[in-house]
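**User:** You know discrete backbone vocabularies at least as well as I do. Would you mind producing a protein record, from residues through to fold? Write it directly below this note and I will take it from there.

**Assistant:**
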Amino acid sequence: MLRDKSLIPLSRQHQHALALCVRIDRASPIDESKLSEWETEIAQQFAAEIKVHFAAEEAILFPAARGFAELNPLVENLIADHQWLRTCFAKAEARQMSSEEISAFARRLAEHIRKEERQLFERLQQLMKPEELGVLGEALDRALENAAQVCSLPNPTK
């Protein structure tokens, strides 16, 4: 299903995060000498974009999804993912992640994004009226204004 324009800003940010996940996967196992570089990048991406992204989802998207009882278990699962991922971002910022933890982080973040894209977004597009999606999109645009809109490009040194 084509992505509704109201959800495209979130999908664009998902692409940025997935790019990081792919790069981590390709670099795995992460050499101990590169841990700090990866932790720095993970923490920077959280501060620049993902922190605002999570807040927008939790304040706007998830409450809208809770209007449909069938989506409540999925929303609870996504919120639990956010909590786990925030712990990882904090560990990256504190430079306390192991190579295995960085790989597990990348896998879980990629799985989380797929759940949102393939399950939540698809179902919301089926359940919500176009006008409702439009209002949702306007609210998301306002909430995402403070995100840096970064794009993770491969770092040739890694």
About this structure: Residues 150-158 have pLDDT under 50 and may be disordered. The helical segments are 8-27, 35-65, 72-93, 99-127, 130-143. Residues 10 and 38 are 23 Å apart (CA to CA). The chain has five helices and no strands.
